[in-house]
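Narrative progress, year one. The postdoctoral researcher (J.K.) led the effort to move from monomer predictions toward full complexes, under supervision of the PI. The following entry was the first complex the group processed end to end, covering 490 residues in total.
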Amino acid sequence: MKKIVKKHPLAIRWFHWVNFPVLGVMIWSGLLIYWANDVYKIGFGSTTLLKFFPDSFYKALNVPFRLSEGMAYHFVFMWLFFLNGIAYVLYTIFSGEWRLLMPNRKSFREAWQVLLHDLHIRKAKPAQGKYNAAQRIAYSAIIVMGIGSILTGLAIYKPVQLQWLCTLFGGYKMARIIHFALTIGYVLFFLIHIIQVILAGWNNFRAMITGFEVEKTKDEPVAEENTKSN
Amino acid sequence: MANFFNSIFTKNNKLSTDQLIMKKTVVSFFFFFVFAGAAFWGWKWLRKQPSEAGKTSTPLRTVLNANEKIFNNFLSDKHLAKQYPLFLAANPARVNGDLGLKTDFDPTTWAMNVIKAKGDTLKITLDEIKKLPKTEIVFNFKCIEGWSQITHWGGVKFSEFMSAYGLDKEAAMKYLGLCTPDKEYYVGIDMQSAMHPQTLLCYELNGKPLPLNQGYPLRLIIPVKYGVKSLKRIGDMYFSNERTPDYWADKKGYDYFSGL
């Protein structure tokens, strides 16, 4: 027998899918802004391992000489990013969803098991629940990162009027670096997220749109493939 | 397929589990694609909007102006740009941009035109400005491009200049305008920011007269704005209750306020 099991409330699906394009616009417009002073790189001494960003990257994305456009979009869509983020956090708190989301005492040990399992090093399946331990940590971290982006963003947006905020992040230059690093973090999160969603399969993905997962209940005869492979 | 359309109008409790899953899935995806399509259409619409000033379209400009109203509430004469010890000041200071400085210019005949009204212009020389009390500031100069540099400037507080020359009526207006002698570069500034205690009519950099490429004889230094507003080589000064023209906002699509 199949069973329909509710997974994601409508509000959470809504916040998730609004955030996706809005964050996309924020990253794109942020890139247009960053280009005008693209001084960050990873390296040591005089060796540069990775320059943010290579000219070919800018060219491919049509980035150069669009600073004013980037600023305009950034300072318009920041409101959507902020309001949607606030709504998500408030909903998570007041609906009690935070209990399923926040890491608990076991999470950090279990997250390690999830990692080993996902890398096919460890066979035993870690505890799942709505979110497994690694998901709890990742999805909570992304909220902290979002708050970080808003605060560092405000610090570099109004460094004189909100000077205390700028100082809190180590000054104007440091706040800009953190703001940039968090964005790189989102991109990495996105890549892993996409891979994991593909690996998790249709049932899991569908739940992010329909809200429910289909569960096979025990009284159903064991699926054929399983019987054979055993 | 017909089966499916039937199931849409059939009550859920009369459907098999498989039919119910199918129905719920299709209905959800339908709404998902409707909203995604609307968002995409909205984006296309926004990208197509004509611009009334510079390259920034009207809807975006409307929000930027609203941002100005919101963040203006934070603007206060008590919120000062952080000052730094003198030894941190860059020497030489970065030179960025020569708009309005490219025309032949004779500093010996220079005087600033303060246009009070049509046909009522004060001409003020550098020596006259230097007679007013001097203020020095070492602050982190912030360029709209994203770089910043600690620099050391000296000059007259704009607010003290205004009262010294009896320009109280002008100081009560909403906007200040400045342009270079060749009129190639011009900025508009809200009066509250102009009257901020750290705004200088500046004639010194690192304790010496401004170099030509930094705006000799007189430039603006306004720490509560991005560097684009710190116009070099002031030619005319004027006042209005309407927004005064601004090169970067009118021509290039930047935010008019550009406040920090």
